[in-house]
Every structure is written in structure tokens, then in C-alpha cells.
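Working notes for the structural subgroup meeting. M.R. asked for a predicted model of this chain before we commit to crystallization trials. I am recording the input and output together here so anyone reviewing the notebook later can reproduce the run.

Input as submitted:
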Amino acid sequence: MDMMDVRFRPVIWLQEAGFKAYVVGNQARNKLLGNNYDPKDIDIATSALSQQVVNLLHRHGVVPVRVDDKFGVVTFQLQGSDYEVTTFRRDIYDEEFNHIRRVPAQIDFVQDIKVDALRRDFTINAIYFNPKTGQHLDPVDGYRDLQAKILRFVGNPEIRIKEDPLRVLRAIRFKFGLGFKYDFATQRALKKFGGLVHKLSDAILKKEFQKIQNLPNYSLARKEMQFFGVLPRF
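Returned structure, recorded in C-alpha cell form:
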């Protein structure tokens, strides 16, 4: 591994222990785009269950910061980087959405990244990178959308927003942060259901809104929020 890849050592630890493990999200996406990634924000998807991850970390002298067995999430810090390790899973939501940020009614842990990919927000965030082999796995054609600079929800965009209205602000952030454009169905869903963000708490909205404010082209992003009726009222 080169100096950049050294940050991916926990992925290698998991693989050497016999588990499937990949870097996913902004690191995989930005590596394909040739952009720098945030070294303090490293997401790992794995077939290992949370307690198996905890045991592995302990063997390497790492103490987890947070362990959530229900969601299969383990967070920890290592050499200045923040890691979040999540078990491959299927999220099943109650179809009676109440327009607040939802938690799945049922979570099934799985072994197949194709299933895990279907729960993610955008296709460009469902690309899995194996730092050991240098290969990318692309279950929902995220690479195609990266090349075309298209922001597209995984699956039905209306359902994705109803599951978690915060994805509306994430869509705006990714569009203006990456210089992408929405696919037609994504834009239509954002316009139709964007107002659901106002059902979320100010604390949740502020964190995402601050990320948008930090964009170099924030003024354009702000106009977009006004267009979709999602400009936070604080």
C-alpha cells in the first residue's frame, strides 16, 4: 500500500481475518474522480458483524468509540482519522411514512454487497473499493453516473426521500460540491418532497446545512434550496 492507502489498513485487517471488506462512500467516489478525499472520514462496509469488528480492533490495540449492534455500526479513531465500519445490511422501512427521519422497521444483516448497495442514497455513493486489489465493485452503475456527472438516487427517489428527508440537502450538497446535475426523476422528487426536510429537527438540519455553507459556490446552492423550498428557518 502507498502512503495514502495506509489509512485503509483496517480494511486489510478485516480481509485477513476472513471477512469481506471495502471502502465505500466518498473515498471510493473521489478516488475514481481523482479528487482528494477527507482523511478524517473513512467509511468501511464489511460482512463482519459489529462484535466481530470490535474483537478484531481489540486485537490490533484499537478501542472503539461507539458500537451499535442494532445497526451494525462501529466507529473508532486511528492515527488522526475517524472510521465508521458498517455491516452489509438490508434496511426495511414501514410503508406508512410519517415524514420524519426514519429508522428502519427491520434490519437484516447480509453477506452480499449487491443487497447492501440498494439501501444507499445515491448511485455514486454505492461504489465499493478494495484497497488490497485496487478494484472497484459497482452494483448499481455508480461509475456510469460519475462519468456522466449525474446525481441519481438508488431505486425509487420518492421512497429514498421519504425514508430520510435529509437526503434532499445531501443531494444539493453533492450537486454543487461535485459539479453534477440531477437526473430527471431525482430532480422531480426533490421538488415534490423537498419540503419534508422541515419535519426534521434543527439540530439535524444545521449539521448538513453547515456543510453546504462551506461550499465555494454556496450562493448557487442557496438559490437551489430556495427553489426547492428547503432553506432552513434558523
